[in-house]
Design a protein that fits this description.
Structural class: alpha+beta
Number of helices: 7
Largest sheet: 6 strands, mixed
Helix content: 25-40%
Shape: globular
CATH architecture: 2-Layer Sandwich
Radius of gyration: 18 Å
Number of strands: 8
CATH class: Alpha Beta
Number of domains: 1
């Protein structure tokens, strides 16, 4: 093997090792015993319908994929929430000064899956709610943990669940998830949508997001609908 090729291989292996280490550290920080069901939740609706939930939990690629693979979820879309319309672009949001967070809009059927169940997935498989303004290798306020509630009922359920987890000392560190009203959601650029499904072998996806899908399948087999 020539020196140039050997050098390239070493660089690739080093990069993979660093990403793997970061992924392992992130998962270790978020490790918990199995989360309890929300004591306060909405009863399943008697007939099919649609409700919207908006969550911010780090890079939206993996979060979008997690919720897209849940039975009862009708759509899961990457976007931005928290800031104004004129700054809702990836280039501007990435600077960390727009007040936006990378977020995911989840449209679900409340007759098949409850809002509280979605929260349980969010806090368990989707991200680590104890990381302030970051998730894994990504840092900045645009990667903050936040629940943008779309109704008084959602606010009540989310606040009760956060309190429940805090009281039970489920995590070694305090939950830093923000609970704020959802004012607007702006869909991300087309190349971000379904990013994981279209780029399953991209290194970032492999080390940071596929483990989230694996956790969903393992921890919520009754909800998982892998494609």
């Amino acid at each position: 093997m020539n020196k140039h090729l050997l050098s390239q291989v070493c660089i690739l292996l080093s990069t993979a090792l660093i990403l793997c280490t970061l992924c392992s550290q992130a998962r270790a920080e978020g490790e918990t015993r199995p989360l309890p069901k929300p004591v306060v939740d909405a009863a399943l609706a008697k007939s099919p319908g649609q409700e919207t939930a908006v969550f911010a939990a780090g890079c939206f690629w993996g979060i979008e994929a997690v919720f897209k693979n849940i039975n009862g979820v009708l759509s899961s879309t990457s976007g931005y929430s928290g800031g104004s319309a004129d700054t809702a672009t990836y280039d501007k949001v990435s600077r960390g000064s727009t007040e936006h967070a990378e977020a995911v809009k989840v449209v679900f059927d409340p007759s098949k899956v409850s809002y509280g169940t979605l929260l349980k997935v969010l806090f368990s498989a989707a991200h680590d709610p104890t990381q302030l303004n970051r998730q894994g290798p990504d840092s900045g306020t645009q990667y903050r943990s936040a629940i943008f509630h779309t109704s008084v009922e959602q606010q009540r359920i989310a606040q009760a669940y956060i309190n429940q987890l805090q009281t039970a000392k489920t995590y070694a560190k305090p939950i830093v998830t923000q609970l704020v009203p959802m004012k607007a959601f702006y869909q991300a650029e087309a190349y971000h949508l379904d990013y994981l499904a279209r780029n399953p072998n991209q290194p970032y996806i492999v080390f940071n997001d596929l483990p989230k899908l694996a956790a969903l399948k393992k921890e919520f087999p009754e909800l998982y609908r892998g494609k």
